[in-house]
Protein backbone atom coordinates (compact mmCIF):
# COMPACT_ATOMS: atom_id res chain seq x y z
CA UNK A 1 0.00 0.00 0.00
CA UNK A 2 1.42 3.38 -1.02
CA UNK A 3 1.40 6.53 1.10
CA UNK A 4 -1.26 7.99 -1.20
CA UNK A 5 -3.49 4.94 -0.67
CA UNK A 6 -3.20 5.38 3.09
CA UNK A 7 -4.14 9.05 2.88
CA UNK A 8 -7.08 8.47 0.55
CA UNK A 9 -9.14 6.54 3.05
CA UNK A 10 -10.15 6.49 6.72
CA UNK A 11 -8.64 3.51 8.52
CA UNK A 12 -9.52 3.96 12.20
CA UNK A 13 -13.29 3.86 12.83
CA UNK A 14 -13.81 3.60 9.09
CA UNK A 15 -17.57 3.35 9.59
CA UNK A 16 -17.50 7.10 10.22
CA UNK A 17 -16.05 7.82 6.79
CA UNK A 18 -18.18 9.57 4.19
CA UNK A 19 -17.53 9.16 0.48
CA UNK A 20 -20.16 11.56 -0.89
CA UNK A 21 -18.87 14.81 -2.38
CA UNK A 22 -22.00 16.50 -0.99
CA UNK A 23 -20.81 15.67 2.54
CA UNK A 24 -17.47 17.31 1.85
CA UNK A 25 -19.08 20.43 0.40
CA UNK A 26 -21.47 20.73 3.34
CA UNK A 27 -18.60 20.69 5.84
CA UNK A 28 -16.47 23.14 3.87
CA UNK A 29 -19.42 25.50 3.43
CA UNK A 30 -20.43 25.34 7.10
CA UNK A 31 -16.99 26.41 8.32
CA UNK A 32 -14.87 29.41 7.43
CA UNK A 33 -11.53 28.60 9.10
CA UNK A 34 -9.25 25.68 8.32
CA UNK A 35 -5.69 24.71 9.17
CA UNK A 36 -3.34 24.74 6.20
CA UNK A 37 -0.34 22.46 6.68
CA UNK A 38 2.80 21.67 4.72
CA UNK A 39 6.52 21.10 5.26
CA UNK A 40 8.95 24.01 4.91
CA UNK A 41 12.70 23.31 4.90
CA UNK A 42 12.08 19.91 6.48
CA UNK A 43 9.99 21.31 9.32
CA UNK A 44 6.20 21.06 9.83
CA UNK A 45 4.22 24.25 9.18
CA UNK A 46 0.55 24.77 10.00
CA UNK A 47 -1.52 27.93 10.27
CA UNK A 48 -5.27 28.62 10.62
CA UNK A 49 -6.65 30.51 7.64
CA UNK A 50 -9.95 31.91 6.45
CA UNK A 51 -11.10 30.15 3.30
CA UNK A 52 -14.11 29.76 1.05
CA UNK A 53 -15.17 27.00 -1.31
CA UNK A 54 -16.19 28.20 -4.75
CA UNK A 55 -17.17 25.21 -6.86
CA UNK A 56 -14.19 22.87 -7.05
CA UNK A 57 -11.79 25.50 -5.71
CA UNK A 58 -10.88 26.43 -2.15
CA UNK A 59 -9.75 30.06 -2.07
CA UNK A 60 -7.34 31.41 0.53
CA UNK A 61 -5.31 34.57 0.80
CA UNK A 62 -2.49 36.09 2.78
CA UNK A 63 0.38 38.53 2.61
CA UNK A 64 2.91 38.30 -0.19
CA UNK A 65 5.48 38.70 2.59
CA UNK A 66 4.56 35.34 4.11
CA UNK A 67 7.38 33.07 2.99
CA UNK A 68 5.64 29.81 3.88
CA UNK A 69 2.55 30.83 1.94
CA UNK A 70 4.69 31.60 -1.10
CA UNK A 71 6.26 28.16 -0.60
CA UNK A 72 2.93 26.35 -0.86
CA UNK A 73 1.78 28.64 -3.65
CA UNK A 74 4.79 27.46 -5.63
CA UNK A 75 3.41 23.91 -5.65
CA UNK A 76 4.55 22.30 -2.39
CA UNK A 77 2.19 19.51 -1.24
CA UNK A 78 -0.29 20.84 1.32
CA UNK A 79 -3.40 19.83 3.23
CA UNK A 80 -6.32 21.87 4.54
CA UNK A 81 -8.04 20.42 7.61
CA UNK A 82 -11.48 21.58 8.77
CA UNK A 83 -13.37 20.44 11.88
CA UNK A 84 -16.83 21.33 13.18
CA UNK A 85 -17.45 20.34 16.80
CA UNK A 86 -21.18 19.59 17.07
CA UNK A 87 -21.45 18.24 20.60
CA UNK A 88 -19.73 16.83 23.66
CA UNK A 89 -20.68 13.19 24.22
CA UNK A 90 -20.85 12.25 27.91
CA UNK A 91 -20.94 8.58 28.83
CA UNK A 92 -21.27 6.93 32.24
CA UNK A 93 -17.48 6.54 32.32
CA UNK A 94 -14.60 8.71 31.12
CA UNK A 95 -13.29 6.06 28.73
CA UNK A 96 -16.41 6.32 26.56
CA UNK A 97 -16.65 10.11 26.57
CA UNK A 98 -16.37 11.42 23.02
CA UNK A 99 -17.51 14.19 20.70
CA UNK A 100 -19.85 14.54 17.77
CA UNK A 101 -18.06 16.22 14.90
CA UNK A 102 -17.73 16.66 11.17
CA UNK A 103 -14.23 16.82 9.74
CA UNK A 104 -12.65 17.05 6.32
CA UNK A 105 -9.12 17.03 4.92
CA UNK A 106 -8.39 18.23 1.40
CA UNK A 107 -4.93 17.54 -0.03
CA UNK A 108 -3.16 18.78 -3.10
CA UNK A 109 -0.90 21.50 -4.46
CA UNK A 110 -1.90 25.13 -4.11
CA UNK A 111 -1.49 27.46 -7.06
CA UNK A 112 -1.29 31.23 -7.14
CA UNK A 113 -4.25 33.00 -8.67
CA UNK A 114 -2.97 35.01 -11.69
CA UNK A 115 -2.48 38.70 -10.93
CA UNK A 116 -5.19 39.79 -13.35
CA UNK A 117 -7.68 37.46 -11.62
CA UNK A 118 -6.71 38.08 -7.98
CA UNK A 119 -9.19 40.92 -7.44
CA UNK A 120 -12.08 38.75 -8.66
CA UNK A 121 -10.87 35.83 -6.51
CA UNK A 122 -10.72 38.02 -3.39
CA UNK A 123 -14.25 39.25 -4.09
CA UNK A 124 -15.41 35.63 -4.46
CA UNK A 125 -13.74 34.77 -1.15
CA UNK A 126 -15.27 37.76 0.65
CA UNK A 127 -18.75 37.23 -0.74
CA UNK A 128 -18.68 33.54 0.14
CA UNK A 129 -17.97 34.50 3.77
CA UNK A 130 -20.22 37.61 3.89
CA UNK A 131 -22.55 37.59 0.87
CA UNK A 132 -22.93 41.01 -0.71
CA UNK A 133 -20.21 42.76 1.31
CA UNK A 134 -18.07 43.52 -1.76
CA UNK A 135 -20.76 45.87 -3.12
CA UNK A 136 -20.81 47.96 0.08
CA UNK A 137 -17.13 48.91 0.28
CA UNK A 138 -14.56 50.68 -1.88
CA UNK A 139 -12.60 48.69 -4.42
CA UNK A 140 -9.13 47.45 -3.49
CA UNK A 141 -6.22 49.67 -4.48
CA UNK A 142 -3.37 48.46 -6.68
CA UNK A 143 -1.06 48.64 -3.67
CA UNK A 144 -3.39 46.46 -1.59
CA UNK A 145 -3.73 43.90 -4.36
CA UNK A 146 0.03 43.84 -4.89
CA UNK A 147 0.52 43.04 -1.20
CA UNK A 148 -2.02 40.22 -1.22
CA UNK A 149 -1.35 36.68 -2.37
CA UNK A 150 -4.48 34.80 -3.48
CA UNK A 151 -4.11 31.03 -3.77
CA UNK A 152 -6.42 28.16 -4.59
CA UNK A 153 -6.57 24.46 -3.78
CA UNK A 154 -8.44 22.33 -6.30
CA UNK A 155 -10.76 19.66 -4.89
CA UNK A 156 -9.80 16.58 -6.90
CA UNK A 157 -11.25 13.05 -6.81
CA UNK A 158 -9.34 10.96 -4.29
CA UNK A 159 -7.78 14.08 -2.80
CA UNK A 160 -9.99 14.37 0.24
CA UNK A 161 -11.44 12.47 3.20
CA UNK A 162 -14.45 13.11 5.44
CA UNK A 163 -15.19 11.68 8.86
CA UNK A 164 -18.36 12.21 10.90
CA UNK A 165 -19.62 11.16 14.32
CA UNK A 166 -23.26 11.87 15.13
CA UNK A 167 -24.43 9.46 17.81
CA UNK A 168 -25.23 9.12 21.52
CA UNK A 169 -22.62 7.77 23.94
CA UNK A 170 -21.80 4.09 24.12
CA UNK A 171 -23.73 2.33 26.84
CA UNK A 172 -20.67 1.37 28.84
CA UNK A 173 -21.90 -0.29 32.01
CA UNK A 174 -25.38 1.05 31.32
CA UNK A 175 -25.75 2.55 34.81
CA UNK A 176 -29.13 4.34 34.80
CA UNK A 177 -28.16 6.39 37.86
CA UNK A 178 -25.26 8.11 36.05
CA UNK A 179 -26.36 10.83 33.61
CA UNK A 180 -25.16 10.32 30.06
CA UNK A 181 -26.03 12.10 26.84
CA UNK A 182 -24.96 14.77 24.39
CA UNK A 183 -24.37 18.48 24.98
CA UNK A 184 -24.92 20.11 21.55
CA UNK A 185 -22.57 22.91 20.52
CA UNK A 186 -23.03 25.56 17.85
CA UNK A 187 -21.53 28.85 16.72
CA UNK A 188 -23.85 31.85 16.68
CA UNK A 189 -23.58 35.46 15.59
CA UNK A 190 -24.17 38.30 18.05
CA UNK A 191 -25.18 41.91 17.60
CA UNK A 192 -22.69 43.73 15.34
CA UNK A 193 -20.36 46.22 17.04
CA UNK A 194 -19.69 49.49 15.20
CA UNK A 195 -16.05 50.50 14.77
CA UNK A 196 -15.08 53.57 16.84
CA UNK A 197 -14.50 55.79 13.78
CA UNK A 198 -17.85 55.05 12.12
CA UNK A 199 -20.58 57.66 12.53
CA UNK A 200 -23.26 56.63 14.99
CA UNK A 201 -25.88 57.45 12.34
CA UNK A 202 -24.35 55.12 9.75
CA UNK A 203 -26.76 52.18 9.37
CA UNK A 204 -25.71 48.56 9.62
CA UNK A 205 -25.39 47.37 6.00
CA UNK A 206 -27.58 44.72 4.43
CA UNK A 207 -24.83 42.10 4.26
CA UNK A 208 -24.23 42.33 8.01
CA UNK A 209 -27.96 42.28 8.81
CA UNK A 210 -28.35 39.10 6.76
CA UNK A 211 -25.34 37.54 8.42
CA UNK A 212 -26.74 38.21 11.91
CA UNK A 213 -30.30 37.19 11.08
CA UNK A 214 -29.58 33.84 9.42
CA UNK A 215 -29.47 31.96 12.75
Automatic annotation (TrEMBL):
EC primary class: oxidoreductase
Superkingdom of this protein's organism: Bacteria
Keyword terms: Oxidoreductase
Pfam families: Pyridox_ox_2
The keyword Disulfide bond is assigned to this record: no
The protein's Enzyme Commission number: 1.-.-.-
Example of a GO MF term: oxidoreductase activity
InterPro entries: Pyridox_Oxase-rel (IPR024747), Split_barrel_FMN-bd (IPR012349)
Record has Oxidoreductase as a keyword: yes
Protein name as it appears in the record: Pyridoxamine 5'-phosphate oxidase family protein
Higher taxonomy: Bacteria, Bacillati, Actinomycetota, Actinomycetes, Mycobacteriales
